[in-house]
Amino acid sequence: MDLRYTDAEQEFRQELRAWLGSALAQVGPEPARDDWAARRDYETGWQRMLFDAGYAGVNWPAEYGGRGATPTEHLIFLEETERAGAPYVGMNFVGLLHAGPTLVVEASDEQKAAHLPGILQGEHVWCQGFSEPGAGSDLASLACRAFRDGDDYVVSGQKIWTSFAHVADYCEMLVRTDTDVPKHKGISWVIMDMTSPGIDVRPLRTMEGSTEFCEMYLDEVRIPIADRVGAENDGWRVAMTTLSFERGTAFVSEMLQTMELCRELADLAAHITRGTATAWDDAGLRRDLGRVAAELDALWALTKRNISEATRTGLVGPGGSVFKLAYTDLRHRLGEIALHLLDRASLSLDDLGELPTGQHVQGRIHGISMTIAAGTTQVQKNIIAERILGLPKEPSVGAREGVK
Amino acid sequence: MDFWLTDDQRELQDGIRSFVHGRFPLEEIAEREETAAVIDPAKWREIGEMGVFSLRSDGFDNRSAVLAFEELGRGLVPGPLVVTHLAAGFVDGAAEGTAIVSMLEEGTGPTLVEHATQATDLVRFTDGGVERIDPSRLSFVSVRRPLDALTPVSTIAGGSTEGAPLAGADARALWLAGVVFTAALQVGTAAAAVDLATAYAMEREQFGRPIGSFQAVKHLLAEMFVKSDVARSAVHAAACALDGAAGHDPVRAASVAKVTAGDAALFCGKTGIQVHGGMGFTWEVHAQRYWKRAVVLDNNFGSADHHARLVAEMISSEAS
Questions:
Q1: Residue boundaries of the structural domains of chain A
Q2: I want to staple B94 with a disulfide (CB 3.0 to 4.6 A). Which of A159, A165, B54, B87 is the partner?
Q3: What CATH topology corresponds to A247-388?
Q4: Any bridge partners for residue A146, and if so which?
Q5: Quick check: A297 and B230 CB within 8 A?
Q6: Where are the domains of chain B?
């Protein structure tokens, strides 16, 4: 049990910090949220800079173009890039954190050669076509149908929550290849070229007002069978590989931002007057904000424990679910503290003069998505109760039936 | 960085766990409830012989100590464990478990002293110092009905509370260690409440199936587990900070541990009772004991609320 970094880890940090110092000087200002063309240039451009400096896919194996860094070095990478204010992984998220790592483990040599360099170099943007209107928490009931026709699958159906679909080049997608077997056993994992005919992408406006999520309608889209990853009908297992990546270090950058948000709220409270005192003189506010800040520190420690476990075992255990549950609950509470502090100013998503209402109100809204996205809080609780505590499953309706 | 138990640490943890399990069965502990001697002096000496009180003076680090205290907390072992440990090396007999050292800690109302009638020595932390008070110069009146039947408390009826400085003691370091080790006890209490409620949820059947298969119940258990597990990481991090890990502020880490472990113990205590339903509200079922101990521990070395406000001051000074 040792929180100290080794000499090699410290050296990695120092080199990275030095590089970030010079590299970030060449990066322009962040484009507007919904200027997708500019965002693509900005985010993939940063990815290219990381690639050229040897920091793309830090934790990917070196033989596939990554740096082959240890989980701890990956954590240091995430920490340093966030603290330095580097561009967020943004639309490279699916490629770097979902599709890429899955390809590394599951894809054929040809598939790896065709796709991994494009992800690492920021050349190709990926999206994820997993969820469907009728398959959310019960993902395995997905019904997007793929029929074989010669060397192709012909795919029809609907996908939802496909982040960045309107700018993506490829989609990692789950399709139904067998309707006569139990639902988990008739799914395949395929790579879909987003320029294929028959794909209709419609932006989905979220309650944040932004449009990074899309709905995707597929009408007889042809996908070469050669673009299937893993065996036919083995896609559920392949997809679970991807999801375990998502629950590892995916929230580290966000969590560090949230720590900063806590400090900013403390500072803001000291500048908001309440009668003859300031908002910070309210012991109740200090108690609530201090509690959130303490829990964030604890989650930082938990992250290090999870990383240490991954180093020893090569796997992210259920600790990822523990983290996700605790962190997303905390985001709700912090958002509520912010809105109470701002009171009527929270009616504005624009900054009000000196008052930085924008980021705090936006942050509150965004926080609401976090207990839903990437496995709802309720799904995470089932995972913890069943996989860690060993409690019996609730009777699962239709688990053994096919999906028509 | 390797924030994971070493083989030696796991061995120590297992050793203390089987000691507590073997020598402090909860049924036996509960038999001494509401008696004048909740602490069995012979067993207290056994804790001393096991090396728990002298752990750090014997050269073990704070990380070892938190592992030991978590196990003692898990077993609901009664007595001023943390204060006696802190007094080892300053108060004769503390290291060996022949002395029982309790503490004067102020709060709302008259000062309540835990285990006053069995304490051989008392300490008190003052602004920047720590002093020793001779309990034989004080007269106590026991509270007839203490909240935790395993933590009797007394008011001071007379005598002098004047103390003598504890020579050679680093009061600040002792206080921080007290905060962190109390948090370790709290993590153990929380974890034991989770274990008890989980076992009950697997065995108790309603509507023809174990209640633990219903999401309404399993989600409570998952919340309990999450709080206890997050708090454990905070306690381990605080122990590393006390042991001098560079870049980790022990003052902040100690408060973080006390906030998260205190909240976890209280939450797991009350939710464990809820999972047990009506039986959880009975004296017979142990679920209530974990919550009551959690309340006691939250009021040792500063409450979770108190430490949360300290953390707020720390982030505020970083911001400006």
A1: 7-88, 127-234, 247-388
A2: B87
A3: Butyryl-CoA Dehydrogenase, subunit A; domain 3 (1.20.140)
A4: A155
A5: no
A6: 7-165, 171-319
Distance from CA of A145 to the nearest CA of B (A): 32
Q: In terms of CA atoms, which chain B residue is nearest residue A288?
A: B308
Domain B171-319, architecture per CATH: Up-down Bundle (1.20)
Size of interface A-B (CB pairs under 8 A): 192
Amino acid residing at B142: S
**A382: nearest CB among B6, B218, B311:** B218
Query: Measured in whole angstroms, how far is the alpha carbon of residue B289 from the centre of its chain?
Result: 13
Instruction: List chain A pLDDT tens, one digit each, 404 residues.
Output: 999 999 999 999 999 999 999 999 999 999 988 889 999 999 999 999 999 999 999 988 899 999 999 889 999 999 999 999 999 888 999 999 889 989 999 999 999 999 999 999 999 999 999 999 999 989 999 999 999 999 999 999 999 999 889 999 999 999 999 999 999 999 999 999 999 999 999 999 999 888 778 999 999 999 999 999 999 999 999 988 766 555 567 788 899 999 999 999 999 999 999 999 999 999 999 999 999 999 999 999 999 999 998 888 877 777 888 999 999 999 999 999 999 999 999 999 999 998 999 999 999 999 999 999 888 999 999 999 999 999 998 876 666 777 76
Decide if B233 and A295 are in contact by the 8 Å CB cutoff: no
- Catalytic-residue membership of A80: no
Contacts A384 to B, Cβ<8 Å: 222, 225-226
How far is it, in rounded angstroms, from Cα B153 to Cα B130? 21
A301: closest chain B residue by CA: B233
The whole-angstrom separation of Cα B212 and Cα B198 is 7
Q: What is the pTM of this model?
A: 0.95
* Pairing label, strands A126-129, A170-176: parallel
Please report where in the chains the tokens 């004067």 appear, as a residue.
Answer: B104
User: Is A286–B308 a contact, with Cβ atoms under 8 angstroms apart?
Assistant: yes
E strand residue ranges, chain B: 101-104, 112-114, 121-126, 129-133, 138-142, 153-159, 164-165, 205-206, 209-210
Q: Any chain A CB within 8 A of the CB of B248?
A: yes
Third-level CATH fold of A7-88:
Butyryl-Coa Dehydrogenase, subunit A; domain 1 (1.10.540)
Asked if B237 has any chain A CB less than 8 Å from its own CB, the reply is yes
For residue B231, what is the nearest residue in chain A, using CA coordinates? A298
ipTM: 0.96
Q: Which fold has domain A127-234?
A: Butyryl-CoA Dehydrogenase, subunit A; domain 2 (2.40.110)
